[in-house]
Amino acid sequence: MAAEKMALAKAITESLRTSLEQDSKVLVMGEDVGKLGGVFRVTDGLQKDFGEDRVIDTPLAESGIVGTAIGLALRGYRPVVEIQFDGFVFPAYDQIVTQLAKMHARALGKIKLPVVIRIPYGGGIGAVEHHSESPEALFAHVAGLKCVSPSNASDAYWMMQQSIASDDPVIFFEPKRRYWDKGEVDKTAIPGPLHKARVAREGSDLTVVAYGPMVKTCMEAAAAAAEEGRSLEVIDLRSMSPIDFDTVQASVEKTGRLVVVHEAPVFYGSGAEIAARITERCFYHLEAPVLRVGGYHAPYPPARLEEEYLPGLDRILDSVDRALAY
Amino acid sequence: MAAEKMALAKAITESLRTSLEQDSKVLVMGEDVGKLGGVFRVTDGLQKDFGEDRVIDTPLAESGIVGTAIGLALRGYRPVVEIQFDGFVFPAYDQIVTQLAKMHARALGKIKLPVVIRIPYGGGIGAVEHHSESPEALFAHVAGLKCVSPSNASDAYWMMQQSIASDDPVIFFEPKRRYWDKGEVDKTAIPGPLHKARVAREGSDLTVVAYGPMVKTCMEAAAAAAEEGRSLEVIDLRSMSPIDFDTVQASVEKTGRLVVVHEAPVFYGSGAEIAARITERCFYHLEAPVLRVGGYHAPYPPARLEEEYLPGLDRILDSVDRALAY
Amino acid sequence: MTVESTAARSKQPRRSSSKRTSSPKKKAAAKKPAGDPGLVQLLTPEGERVEHPDYAIDLTADELRGLYRDMVLTRAFDAEGVTLQRQGELGLWPSLLGQEAAQVGSARAMRDDDYAFPTYREHGVAWVRGVPPENLLGMFRGVNNGGWDPNSNNFHLYTIVIGSQALHATGYAMGITKDGADSSVIAYFGDGASSQGDVAESFTFAAVYNAPVVFFCQNNQWAISEPTEKQSRVPLYRRADGFGFPGVRVDGNDVLACLAVTRAALEHTRSGQGPMLVEAYTYRMGAHTTSDDPTRYREDEERKGWEAKDPILRLRTYLENEGLADEDFFASLEEESTALGKRVREAIRTMENPDEMAMFENIYADGHALVDEERAAYAAYQASFAEEGN
Amino acid sequence: MTVESTAARSKQPRRSSSKRTSSPKKKAAAKKPAGDPGLVQLLTPEGERVEHPDYAIDLTADELRGLYRDMVLTRAFDAEGVTLQRQGELGLWPSLLGQEAAQVGSARAMRDDDYAFPTYREHGVAWVRGVPPENLLGMFRGVNNGGWDPNSNNFHLYTIVIGSQALHATGYAMGITKDGADSSVIAYFGDGASSQGDVAESFTFAAVYNAPVVFFCQNNQWAISEPTEKQSRVPLYRRADGFGFPGVRVDGNDVLACLAVTRAALEHTRSGQGPMLVEAYTYRMGAHTTSDDPTRYREDEERKGWEAKDPILRLRTYLENEGLADEDFFASLEEESTALGKRVREAIRTMENPDEMAMFENIYADGHALVDEERAAYAAYQASFAEEGN
Ligand SMILES: Cc1ncc(C[n+]2csc(CCOP(=O)(O)OP(=O)(O)O)c2C)c(N)n1
Ligand SMILES: Cc1ncc(C[n+]2csc(CCOP(=O)(O)OP(=O)(O)O)c2C)c(N)n1
Ligand SMILES: [Mg+2]
Ligand SMILES: [Mg+2]
Fold it and tell me: Taking every annotated instance into account, which residue ranges of this chain make up the domain Transketolase-like pyrimidine-binding (chains A, B) (predicted)?
C-alpha cells in the first residue's frame, strides 16, 4: 500500500509535478509561480525542475494570463493557471466567461480548451480584503465551465490530474484554509469520476451537503451531533458544476432532511440551486425545507469578524436543529 | 390625467432627460451614447440638449467606463453608465464587483456611489453572440449591488429615476426586446417603492413569478391558461436584489404553487434563490415543488434557435401543468 | 485552401519570384509619397508607384493581378452580405467596404503556417486564408456562432467581444516560440479596440515573452459612431513604442504597402525580436453594420473624400497604366464576381436551420450531467407534442 | 490636517517662499547627475546637490528639514507596523521601507485640494496628507477594510485589487475638469500594476479627456517575486508616450527630485494639458509584506547595493554638510520617532474589535431587505445562546 500522508497543498504540488512529467504540453502559469513557488508554495520547486518555459511567471494581469492561456491551448498546450487569490479572478472574468467557456461551442466542437484555473478560495485565514472570498456560484452559473473543489489531500491529488486531463475548462477551487491539513494519498489508487459526490459519513436523520473547506466543518458538526444522538449523513459534493444530484437525492430520500453548507453568501449561492433541485426531486420525501447555511449578503468582513461570518459548528447545528424540528 | 402612451425605450429616454434636468450632477456615459444616441437610441437627443460634458461618449473600454464612473461619483457626480449589450459587461465585472459594490462598506459608509449601470439584456431579437444574455444572477449574488428590471414603460420611467436617486449602485437591466412595447406613463403619478414586487394579474391556482421581458410572456401564458379554466397569479418581481419575498410569499400562501420564469439559465439562476427561499417560507403551503422555467445550461444559442431556447408560452404552461398535477 | 484563392499560399515568403514588374526604369521614376511622411505608401491614390526607403516590394504581374482579384472578389461577396441582410436572409452584416487593401495586403503577407486572429470584419483576410465566404455568413444568419474549423485555414473564429482575441493571438504566438517554430501570428483589431485593457495586456505579454505576433490595427476612423480621437490623442501606431516594440503606420488603402509592411513585420517577429504593431490607416466606407445609420454621426463629405483613395481603384489604374492587365482580365473578373455573389446567395438561401437539439451539443467536450438531463427533458417535452398531435 | 504633519499643506504650490538654501554659489557648484541621463536627480546618493535643466527646486531650510522629518517619521511608524505584525497585533503589514522619498516627495508636491489615490503601500503619502497612522493599521489588523474618511484628507482608501484605483483617480480628475476647478489628482501604483488593463485604460481615458491626473508609478523593482522585466522590456516611464502624454523617470530615492518632478507634473495637469506619468525609480528594501520571504527570489547583494542609495541617509548628509540641521534637530526627531512608534503601538493594542453586528452595516446606503432580514436572524440566533446560557 503506497499511501503517504501529506498536506493538501503538497498533494496539489505533487499532482502538478506528475502532470508536468507525464505530458510535455502541460504548463503552469501565473503570478509568482516560479522562483517563489506561489504565495502558498503550491508550485514550489516546479520551475526549478521544469524550467521557465513550462512554469511561467506572468505579468501582473489576470485577463492577460487567462487570455494567453486560451491562446496556448489553441496551440495544443494544457495550461494550468494560478489566480493568486479568489478576489483577483475578476479582471479575468470576461476572458473566462465570454471566451474560455464558450469557444468550444462557438467552434461547434472543433476547438477544445483544456485549461485549468486554480483559485485558492475561501476564508478563515485572517487575511485582508479580497483574500477570503468564495465566488464559485459566479462560475457554476456559466455553461461551458466545470467547477470542482477538493476537501482533502487525496481528492486534491486526483482531482487536479483529472482536471488537467479534462478537455474542458475547469475552475479548480482550492480550499486555502485546508492547505496545511494532512491526509492519506495513495498514488496507486484508481480514482473515481471527477464529478461524483462522495458520502463522507453515513447517517440516517439528516443529510448535510458541503464541499471544499466546509466538509471538515460539517464532519465536526456531524460528530458533535452524534454525541447528542443525531445521525447526520455528510456528503462531500466535490463538484459544483456539474452537481451529482443523484447522490444527494439518494441520501435525502433516506433521511428526509437536507442542510446545505458553504462559505459563499447564501443569496443566489450554490445552496439555492441544490435546494431548488433537490426539492423538486424529493418533494414527497422532504420532511422539512432544505435549509442553507452560508455567508451573509455582505462583503466578506474584516478578519476580526470572519469567525462570525463563516458557517461554523454552531450555526450548522442550529440549522440541523431547525430542520429536525419540522 | 397626464398619462401618455410611449415605448419602453422612450420612457427611459424621458426619465434620463428628467434626471439630467433636475440634477446637474447626473451624467450619462457610455459607448455611442452621444451623437448616435446609443445603438438602441435610448439616449437619443440627450447630448444635443445637455452637451458633451454631461452626455459622454467614452473610449471603447468597459472597465474604464465603470472605473471612471466610480471616480466621478467620488467627486460628487451621479453617473448613469450604458453598457452596450449584456455580453459586454464582463470587462467591467471586476470594477463592478470589487470596487463599485464594496467601496461603501470599505469606507464604513463614508463613501456613497450613486452609479447606475444600464444593461440592455435578454434575447428574442435575433442577434449575434453576446447580444442576448441574461447575466442578472451574476450581479444579484454580489452584496453591495442592487438589481432591478422594469417590464413596462411606466416602471421603466419611474424605476430609472428612482435608481438614479438611489445612493447605492444599481444595475438596471433593460428588457431590450420590449423596448418598442408601448404603455401608459403617468408622469404625475407617485411611484411605489423601487424594490417592491407588483401583482400583475390576480389568480388563485398557481403563482407565476417573472421580471423584465418574461412578464409579458407570463401574462400571455396566464391568459391562455385562463381559457383552460386555470387561474394564474402573475407577479412582476421588478427587483432581483433585494427580492420582495413578502409579496411572493403572500401569493404562494394563497395559491400553493409557484413557477418561476426567467430567460437566464436555470442552473444557479434567480429561480433557484426564489425556489429555495419560498420553499422555506411556505413549506406547509406548497402543494408542489417550485418549478423553474428558463434557459438551458448552454451558451445562448444562435438566433435561429433562440425560440427553442427561450421560455415561451408552451414551456411555461407545461410547467404550470406539471405543478398543478402534484 | 479552396480553389477561389488566387494563389496557393507559399510556405515561405514569396521573395524570389522571377518576373518583376517594376523595371529599373520604373523604379527611377518612382516618387516619394506626397502625404504624411510617417505613412508608408507604395501606390498613391492616383495609382502611381512610389518607393519607400524601408519597404521595397517587387511583385510579378500575376501577383499584382492576384491582389486585385482578391480585393474585387472580397468586395463582391461583402456587397452580397449587405444585400442578403436587406432581404432578410442575414440578421446582420458588418461590411468591410473600403478596407480590402488592408485585409488582402496583410493576409497575403502570411505563410500557410501563420495564424490569423480576426475580429468580426475580416472577410478579406478570411478570403485569402481560403475560408469559404458562406462559412462566414452562417453566424450572421444565426445558424451558428462561427463554426468553421479554425485549424483548417489557420484562421480563428470571429471574436465579437472587442479586443479579446489579441490575447489569444499572443498566447498562440507564445506557443509557437515554445515549439521552436518560426511561424507567426496576426492579431486583427480596430481603432476602437485599441482602448480595451485586453489589447494593452496583449502588448505587455507579447513584449515580455518576445512573442511572434503582429498586431494589425485597422484604423478605419470610426468605432461605430465614435471617431478615433475618442480613443487616442496621438496616432495609434505610436502605442507600441511605450511597450518597447516598433509600430508603423501604413496607408491602409494601398495593398502593396500593406503587403510590404506586414511582410516586414512578420519577418521581424520571426527573427525573435518580438511583436510589432501595424496601424493600417483606412476608412470604413459603409455603415458599421447593416443595423447602423452613419448619417447620424458623420458627414457624407468625409466619405466622399475617402472615395478618391479607394484601394481597388488605385490598383486598377496602376495595372491599366502599366499594361499589366487587359480588358479580358477585368471582364472575366467581373463575371467571376457575379458568379461568386450568386454562389454565396444560393448557399445562404439553402442553408438549413440547425436542428434544435444542437442547443445541447458542443457545450462540453467531455459531457456534463446537467446538459444530458436537460437534453433528455427537452426531447421528452418535444415528444409530448407529437403524442398530443397523434 | 493633523498636528504631526510637518507643515500645513499650502493651497498653492510653495514657490514664493523667501529664504532659499541654495545660494548662487552653491548653485554654481552643483554637478550634473552622474548616472542615467534620463533619470532626474537633484540630490546624489552621496548627498550632493546637483542641478537638472528642467527641474529646479529651491527650498527653505525649514522645508528641507520638514521633508527629512516626514521621511524619518514615516519610516518609524512603518517599522512599528512590521513589529506589530510579528507580535501578532496585525495580520499583515506591507512595509514602504526604501520608498520614503518617492512618497513624501510626491505627496509634498500636492495642494490640499488635490486628491491622492493610493494602492496599499503609500503610508508616506498618507502621513503627508495627515491621515493618522493608526487609521492605516486598522485594516491590517483586520478590524475594518479601510474605513477612514477619504474626504477628510483627500486621501482615498487603500485599494488592494491591483490597478483599479488608477481609473478612480482618472474619473475623479474628469470630475475636477467638469467642475472647472484647477485641482489635480495623483494615482499611485507599482511597477507590477503597470501591466493591468485598468492602468492602460486609465491612460486612455485621461489622455482623451485631458484629465488632470499624475500617474505616479513607484517602480520598486519588484512585484512580489517578479522583477520589473517581467512587466516591461523598456523603462516604464516610456509607456505614457504611446498614449500621447509625457512620462519622466525620477530618482525615487531623491526626495528633492520627487518633489520637483511631481510639482511640475501637477502644474502640467492643471494647465489643461492632460495627464502625466512619473516613474519613481526606487527599491523595496523589505519584504513584499510580512508574509513574504524575499530570500527565495532575490539576492541580498541587490538590496545592499540599494542601501547606499538610501533616501533618508542622503538628505541627512546634505543637511549636515550644509549646516541646515544641528544635532538637536536629529536628536529631537529621534525622540519624536520613538514617541510616534509608541503612540501607534498603544493605539493598536487598545484598538477594539468591531461589534459583530457591524457585519451587517454599511453594505447599502439606502438599506436592503435581505440585509435587514439576515441582521435580525443573526441577532435572534445570538440571543438564543444568551437564553440557553440563562
Ligand atoms: C467589449 C465590447 N464592447 C462593446 C461592443 C460593441 N461594439 C461592437 S463593434 C464596436 C466598435 C468597434 O470599433 P473598432 O474597434 O474601431 O472596429 P470597427 O468596427 O471599426 O472595425 C462596438 C462598440 C463589443 N462588441 N464588445
Ligand atoms: C488584481 C490583483 N492581482 C494580484 C494581486 C496580488 N498581489 C498583491 S501585491 C502584488 C504585486 C504588486 O506589485 P507592484 O504593483 O509592483 O506593487 P508593490 O507591491 O511592489 O508596491 C500582487 C501580485 C492583487 N492584489 N490584485
Ligand atoms: Mg474602427
Ligand atoms: Mg513593485
Answer: 6-181
Mutate to test the interface with B, among A252, A268, A292 (most CBs of B within 10 A): A268
pLDDT, residue C386, reads: 78
Of C98, C142, C96, nearest to C118 by C-alpha is: C96
Could you give the CA distance from residue A192 to residue C254 in angstroms, rounded to a whole number? 61
Asked if B15 and B147 sit in the same domain, the reply is yes
**Any idea what the CATH number is for the domain that residue B99 is in?**
3.40.50.970
CB contact, 8 Å: B130 with chain A? yes
Last residue of a domain, one of B185, B208, B234: B185
Cis-peptide into B242, omega within 30 deg: yes
Taking all residues of chain A, what is their mean pLDDT, rounded to a whole number? 98
What is the value of ipTM here, to two decimals?
A: 0.96
pLDDT of residue D340: 98
d(CA D104, CA D111): 13
Task: For residue D257, give the H/E element and its range.
Answer: helix D255-268
Categorize the per-residue pLDDT at B97 as very low, low, confident or very high, splitting at 50, 70 and 90: very high
**Is the CB of residue D33 less than 8 Å from the CB of residue D44?**
yes
Q: For a pLDDT cut of 70, what percent of chain C falls above it?
A: 90
The set of protein residues with a Cβ atom below 6 angstroms from ligand 1 is B 31, 60, 62, 84, 88, 91; C 121, 160-162, 190-193, 220, 222-224, 284, 288
Looking at the domain assignment, is residue A190 inside a domain? no
Residue C370, all three cell numbers: 446537467
Read off the C-alpha cell for C190. Answer: 480596430
Which chain B residues contact residue A87 at CB under 8 A?
Answer: 98
- For chain A, how many structural domains are there in total? 2
pLDDT digits (tens, 9 = 90+) for A2-56: 799 999 999 999 999 999 999 999 999 999 999 999 999 999 999 999 999 999 9
Tell which residue, A90, A126, D122, A129, has the closest CA to residue B108: A129
pLDDT in tens, D282-313: 999 999 999 999 999 999 999 999 999 999 99
Verify that A144 and A209 share a domain, yes or no. Answer: no
CB atoms within 10 A of CB C8: 9
**Interatomic CA distance for residues A20 and A28, integer angstroms:** 8
In order of A109, A193, B65, C209, the CA distances from C167 in angstroms are: 21, 33, 21, 13
Dist. CA B163–CA B149, nearest whole Å: 11
* A233: CATH: 3.40.50.920
Same-domain pairing of B18 and B152: yes
In this structure, how many other beta carbons lie within 10 angstroms of the beta carbon of residue B219? 18
Neighbours of ion ligand 4 (CB under 5 A): D 190-191, 220, 223
> What grid cell was written down for C352?
438549413
Grid cell for residue A39:
504565495
- In chain D, DSSP assigns E strands to 39-40, 115-117, 185-190, 213-219, 222-223, 226-227, 247-251, 276-281
CA dihedral defined by D14, D17, D21, D24, rounded to 10 degrees? 110
Distances from the Cα of B229 to the Cαs of B325, C11, C385, C389, in angstroms?
Answer: 14, 72, 21, 22
Do residues A204 and A163 both lie within one domain?
no
Ligand 1 atom index nearest CA of B91:
1
Q: Which domain holds residue A122?
A: 4-185
pLDDT in tens, B31-81: 999 999 999 999 999 999 999 999 999 999 999 999 999 999 999 999 999
Give CA–CA dist B77/C247, Å, rounded.
Answer: 38
Check whether residue B179 and residue B240 sit in a common domain. no
Closest-CA residue to A242 (of A196, A282, A211): A196
Q: What is the share, in percent, of chain D residues with pLDDT greater than 70?
A: 90
Query: B182: closest CA among B149, B156, B152?
Result: B152
Q: If we measure between CA atoms, which residue out of D134, D148, D136 comes closest to residue D351?
A: D134
Do B16 and B138 lie in a common domain? yes
